[in-house]
Amino acid sequence: MSRAPAVGRSRAVPVLLVLLLLVGGAVWAWAHASEGGLLLGDHCEATAAGATADLDPEQAGNAAIITAVAVRRGLPARAASIAIATAMQESKLRNVEYGDRDSLGLFQQRPSQGWGTRAEILDPVHATNSFYDALIAVKGYQTMPIGEVAQKVQRSAHPSAYADHEPSARVIASVLSGYSPGAFTCALHTEPSVARTAPGQDGLDPRARTVARAAAAETGRDGAVAASTDGTALRFSLAGADARRDGWSLAHWAVARSEALGIVSVATDGRQWRRHGSTGWNPMPGAPQPGSVVVRVAPG
Length: 300
What we know:
Elements: H1 4-31, E1 43-48, E2 51-55, H2 57-72, H3 77-91, H4 118-121, H5 124-136, H6 146-154, H7 166-176, E3 184-187, H8 206-219, E4 225-226, E5 233-237, H9 243-256, H10 258-261, E6 263-268, E7 271-274, E8 282-283, E9 292-297
């Protein structure tokens, strides 16, 4: 009796397994796209001088806060580079609630070593200011090797490891400081799910008001005003000789914080970034001029 049908079935099993593995691998790659340089899922990137640094949205938001605090304090981009490289080494740019002994947060600061209370260290703005307070006390930090500087601030057991992150940190800090217009972008594949809300007396709905408060706390930029009748857009106006660069710094901050704050679009200097399916910053008729930044949150 012929046994050919049984052979045919046995061959079909490996083929099915291969197909299942391929599908499973594709799903895993999408879910882990921000790890290892893949760019399929939600991801952000900074590009300057021909170099690109990739971040996931959480890392991007923390890098934006670190840079914004440096800009607010009038520190050079070098300070932000050092801080970002340090956070990349210490916590992978994540505000973690654990570490060696009582170490916490972005910089793995320790309450027992005088960096603040647990709650303060887990506040990225407080932690970053504490880091900069220690950094600027290091004479000549602007020109010292990053490992040497980090060792003086962090007292790390592995000071040479910080230098590994310096190239990416320099790109991120430069772009988020506004020196490379339109060079920071995020591609986010989901839209925020929100309930409809009405504007308050200030003309802003609660989500837009949250953005305004975050901008004031993290970047020092306050005075935002409503830029739409439904309260979902707010406008920041910057003045002075550096208004264009300051505007791009704020705009890049908003893009980097878009996942956490529910931001769906940012516009400045004649260009616009959009959250869903973004291909970067594109020309936009009627977009704000240099020094003016319009940020829009998800409509209700």
